[in-house]
Structures are given as C-alpha cells and as structure tokens.
Write a structure and sequence with these properties.
Elements: H1 3-11, H2 16-25, H3 27-49, H4 54-78
Helix pairs in contact: 1-3, 2-3, 3-4
Protein name: DUF465 domain-containing protein
Organism: Pseudoalteromonas luteoviolacea
Pfam families: DUF465 (PF04325)
Length: 80
C-alpha cells in the first residue's frame, strides 16, 4: 500500500481501486498524488504552528490542494 494514496483514498473512497492502479501504472498520476499528500502534510503543519503568517499560507496551501485534488479527480473520472 502506497502511503501517498492514503489521503487521496480518504477524500475519494469510491476510486480506491482506480487510485491503486494509477499510482502503479501512471507516473504523472503517481507524482500528482505525492504532491497532493505533501500539500496535505504542509496544511497540517501550518495548522499546528499557528504562526502570524500562517493564515495566508494556509489559505494558499488549501487552494493549491483543492486544485490538485480536482485534477486528480478529473483523471480518475475521465482518464485524462
């Protein structure tokens, strides 16, 4: 089981088998999945630090994560 897929499966459980397949067979999907996981880790770290610049950074990270999740979803749904 790939660690980077865990958060994606949590968000899109209906695509679990497709996520597993694409991570193993599609290099770009695997890279995007890793990027998504890394962004989620940054969001968690930012929430924990709660520093003065964190609110703006958190907003930017969440926006990037949403965009990336949308790209992954489109690839899962439509194969593009």
């Amino acid at each position: 089981m790939c660690i980077e897929r865990c958060s994606l499966v949590k968000e899109l459980p209906e695509f679990k088998s497709k996520i597993d397949e694409l991570i193993l067979t599609d290099e770009e999907f695997a890279r995007l999945s890793e990027d998504y996981h890394a962004l989620e880790q940054q969001i968690v770290a930012c929430k924990k630090s709660n520093g003065p610049m964190c609110e703006a950074k958190l907003k930017e990270l969440k926006s990037r994560c949403f965009t990336l999740k949308d790209r992954l979803y489109m690839r899962l749904k439509h194969g593009t």
